[in-house]
Each structure stands twice: as C-alpha cells, then as structure tokens.
Amino acid sequence: MSIDTDVDHDTVPPANKGLLAIAGVLLALPLVALAWVGSYARKDPELWGFPFFIWYQFLWVFLCSALTFTAYKLVLRARPHRPMPGHRDAETRRRDDEEAGR
Amino acid sequence: MTALAPAVTDSSVNGVALTVLILLFALVTGMGFWATRWRKADSMESLDEWGLGGRRFGTWVTWFLLGGDLYTAYTFVAVPAAMFATGAVAGFFAVPYTIVLYPIIFIFMARLWSVSHRHGYVTPADFVRGRYGSRGLSLAVAVTGILATMPYIALQLVGIQAVLEVAGIGGESVLARDLPLFIAFALLAAYTYSSGLRAPAVIAFVKDALIYLVIIVAVIYLPTKFGGWDAIFGAAEKKMAAPNAIDGKPNGAFIPSQQQFVAYATLAFGSALALFMYPHSITATLSSSSRNTIRRNASILPAYSFVLGLLALLGWVAIAAGTKPIGLDGKPNAQLVIPQLFEDSFPSWFAGVAFAAVAIGALVPAAIMSIAAANTFTRNIYKEWLKPDATHAQEAKVGKLVSLLVKAFALVFVLTLDKQNAINFQLLGGIWILQTLPAIVFGLYTRWFHRWALLAGWAAGMAYGTYAAWGVANPRSKVAHFGGSLDPIPVLGDLGYIAMTAFVINLVVAVVLTLVLTAMKVDAGRDETIRGDYFADAGDPRVEKNLAMDAHLTTGTP
Fold first, then answer.
1. Closest Cα to residue B292, out of B545, B541, B110, B121?
2. Distance of CA B436 to CAs B139, B433, B439, B485, Å?
3. Under an 8 A CB cutoff, do B302 and A54 touch?
4. CA-CA to B250 of 20 to 30 Å: which in B30, B67, B74, B437?
5. Do the chains contact at B102 and A49, CB–CB below 8 Å?
C-alpha cells in the first residue's frame, strides 16, 4: 500500500464538478416541485378517486427516492474516497501518546 | 389488568384487544432486555457502545432504526387527528415534509458522519465545540437539543395514553389511569439502561413490521367498508367546507387555498430542516457503520413517508366512517380518532395488534430520544462543564442515569400536567431546534460565520420564535397562547410556519454580525478539524474504533 504522506489532507478531495452539479440538480428537483404548492393544490385530474393534490404528492415519494438514489450513484463516482493512511495530525499523535502511556 | 379499570361510562374495556396489546408489549420487553447480547461488545462501559451501539449499524438496521425513530407514535396519532379536525394544511404537510427531508439530509449528513467519526463526536454540540472552539455556542446547541427533546419524549406517552384510553383503561382513578403507563415506562427505562441503543434497534424491527401490517390492512380494508375512496374524499371535502360552530369559518382545508400555499410549504420545509437537528436523529445517524449508510438510507427511507401519507388519509376515512373520538372524560378529543377508528372497524384481536403498533411505536423513539438527551447532557454539560477529566466508564454511567431521569421527568410531566402542555412545548421545541441549524449545518461547509454571530442569531431566533408562538390564540380549542405553529410573516403578511420566520431572522443576525465581528477582528476561535475530515470514511485513521478489526490501519501508521 502506498503511503501518501505527501497528500495535504487539509484540502477538499478532488471531484468531478460536472457530475456533482448534476447530482445537485437531481436533489433540488423534489424540493422545487413540492415548494411550488400552487402547481398541485387542485382536485383534478383525479386518479382512482384520489384528488390530484393527494396522488401527485404520493408520486413524488417514488420520484424523490429514485432521484436520491441516482444522485447517490453519481456522487460516489464524482468523488472517489481519498484514503487517509498514515495521516497523523496533532490529535492522532495525542491519542496515540495517551494509549501508549496507559 | 381489567380489574384495575374503574366503572367506565361510555366505553367498556376491550378484553381481547387489551390481551393482544399486553402480549405484544411483553414480547418487545423481552427483546429489549435480550438486546444487550445482540452484536455483543467487549464492554458497554463507554458512550460509543451504550449510546451509539458501537457505531456498527449497517444499511438495513439503520433503516429500521431511523424509521422507528423519526416516525413516532405521536406522529401516528397526531397527523391523522389533524387531518380529521382541520384537514390538509395541518395534516397532509407531513407528506411533502418527509419527502424533501431526504434530499436535504443526503446533502449534509455524510459530512457530519465523517467529521464526527474522525474526532469522536457523539452529539452535534460536540461538533460545534470542535469546529468553532466555542464552549458557549456548544452549550447553546446542547441545551436547545435537550429542551426540544424532553417534550417530544412526553408526547410519546401521550400516544400510548390515547391507545389505552380507547382500549378502556383510564377514567377517574389515578391508579387505573396512570399505572399501566408507569409500568410501560419503567420497563422501557430498565432495558434502555442495560442495553442502550441496541434495545430500540431490536424493537424497531417489530414496531415497523406491525405498523406496515396495520396501515396496509387499514387502507385496503377500510375503504371497502365505507363506500370507497370517492365517498371518503367526498365526506372530507364536505366536512372541511362546512362552517365551524365556534367562528363560522370553514372547518379546515380539503386542498390548500391560495392564501395557505406559504403555510403549507413553510410547514413542510421548516419541519424537514428541523428534524435532523434533533439529537435523536443525529444519534441514529452516527450509529451507522459508514459514511454512505445514511445516503443509501436517504433513498429507501421514503418508504415510511408513503406509509405516513396513507396513515394521514385514515383521518379522512374516519370522517366517512363517522368516528366519534370521545375521551373517557366524555369530551371530544381528536387525538383519539385513529385508535377509535381501529376499535370500531376491526375485529377485537386486530384492533389489539393496531393498538400495539402505536404503543410499541412510542417505545423506540422514546428510548432513542432519552439516549440522545443523555449523550448530550453527558458530553456537553457534565464532561464539558462539571467534570472535564471524566473517564469513558464514568461518561457511560452518567449517560445511563440521565436517560432514566429524562424518562422520569417525561412521565411526571404527562401525569401531573395537562397534556396540552406537552403539545405546546413540542411545538416550541420544533421552533427552537431549527435555530441550531446555522451553527451545525453551515459549519459543515464553512467557517465564514463568526461563532458569536451564530450565538446571537440563535438567541434572536429563539426569542422571536417563543414570543410569536406564545401569541398564537386558538378560539376553537379555547386557548389564548400556543394555539398553533402558524403566524403572519412580518412584511409578507401570509401565514407561515413560525420556525421558518425565526430561522430567517436568525440568519440575518448571523450574517450581519459576522461581517461586523470579522471586520473588528474578534477572535474567531480555533478549528480542530481539517477539510479532509469531512470526507473521511470507515477505515481511515481514527474512524474505525475497533483497531483490532482493522489490521491494515496499523501498517499505515509510521
């Protein structure tokens, strides 16, 4: 295993900004859709006897779930985990000393 | 048990339902005590083990735990009750609330998980302390968390009470009314004390299974009984449009009118932003085993939102069914509408299962809330201010004791005061807890905000929110104060959720004062975190507590 002691961990790990932006849009869609109450506060069209107001919001439960899952996959790819092996900051050293002294 | 019930006038004891309820309750009690052996730790003598279940819960356990934690018994009682009494604005907002919740937490909870594991934070106040180097701001966050959680625990008892009252237990005698509640909470306290977060995690499986079963049966079976969904929505529309006997205005909203759009949206967003500021939500999140567990959960937790939406509709089913929620004191009480609907429409044994679902639904959140409040007290008040050199074992001991105290307090609160007090304080708690968001969530992204500006913003939001909520009168329920969570928004004039207005005031104060304090070069405090901490995952140094399990870590340390 390579020990990347020369990586500065006081930085944000590199990421594909484009993918992150797409994920951001996917996450924002349900927020915008549901905040815009005027777009769905009505009775028609009904579906199986359910007013539009009701079934439209139920529909967003599923849409939101799918969008969040897609965003999850995108975010994983956009910013792969940057491991921190060998990274010892002051806090780690203090704890190690504490352990050793015990 | 039945012998304890006094002479009841308008409702008899439902023996079969009560027996089923007691049997299921006994089952989860046994599971609660057994939980201490589940995924057994070498030692329970630390807050990590007792208060966070060893931080080892995977995706599915976290799903059950968070579902059991967030969708509380009180929610199950109060949301349909609101639908029944005043309709969509006060009730159905719970659906958009629990939808927008998940994209919001998807965005920031992974960061909180990472930095908390890198630095061993157990509570949000721990993070605030480390990020801003400010004991004052951390104390404000901790105290707000405890204050907001206490009435929430008390409301879980109100949920159990509603079920017991419909089952016929209650009335005049103090013994009959309070003893079952007392026994239930004593058992809960005992297994929370011994098993910590493992107890609600195990019980959550039963709770969620029962809830799903009851709701699905109810939404399939009940509409066929009461003329189908067409008839149900028709009855609801008619009731909501009818003038109220007290003020002559319509009873409520079938579908929000244009004047109610802002109220509906601010209720949904304000509640969604607030929910994950509660210590109990954060406790359940931090107990997960990796950074991505919470993100995966953000896409599967909406299953509960769907069920909550169906449950809300049961409030309207009760309108079509002509349910009369009358308490044992003979007065109408909308809170009883769901248990009453179940008792009227289901065979006794299934009503018992439904009652058990609500009562057990109270135990999981009550346990996690008391653990979270105990963690907060122990870490941010006891260790921070009273005994800085406390060992892990002492922390765990204090945490366990405080979890007992918190529950005892909730019990006394519910048994001695009018339960309207618990509801008032819970309403205030939602407003208060949202005021900790800037320090916690913005802190996960930036150190731009000055610690004292955040504290001042918090104070301004708390003060405005409390004052505004105090001023809301509700002639229909004959209260002059704390009559609801909506108030005209200054400048705009529309009704809006008070918590959101207070939040905006909080933000404005925080931004303005940050500019001033930064210009004056007032000490901003030391930040003990580094940027990489916010992206750390299981396996990174210090993130995995169980070093023995992670041999590769030791090779990484020079």
1. B110
2. 11, 6, 6, 18
3. no
4. B74
5. no
Neighbours of A97 (CB within 10 A): 10
- CA B180 to centroid of chain Cα atoms: 23
User: Rounded to the nearest 5°, which phi and psi values hold at B231?
Assistant: -65, -35
pLDDT, residue B6, reads 38
* C-alpha–C-alpha distance, residues B445 and B457, integer Å: 18
Q: What is the pLDDT along chain A (102 residues), one digit of tens a residue?
A: 444 456 777 777 777 788 889 989 998 999 999 889 888 888 888 788 788 888 999 999 999 999 999 999 898 888 877 777 655 555 555 555 665 554
Q: For testing the chain B interface, which of A63, A81, A95 should be mutated: the one with the most B CBs within 10 Å?
A: A81
Sorted by where each begins, the domain ranges of chain A are: 17-80
Query: Does ipTM exceed 0.90?
Result: no
**B107 chain-A contacts, CB cut-off 8 A:** 27
Give the nearest partner residue to A27 out of B106, B542, B557, using CB atoms.
Answer: B106
Chain A hits for B556, CB-CB cut-off 8 Å, are: 1, 3, 85-86
- Other Cβ atoms less than 10 A from the Cβ of B355: the count is 30
Neighbours of B86 (CB within 10 A): 20
Please report how the helices B59-70 and B348-377 are oriented relative to each other, as an axis angle in degrees rounded to 10: 100
3-state secondary structure of A50: strand
User: Can you give the residue ranges of every domain in chain B?
Assistant: 43-435
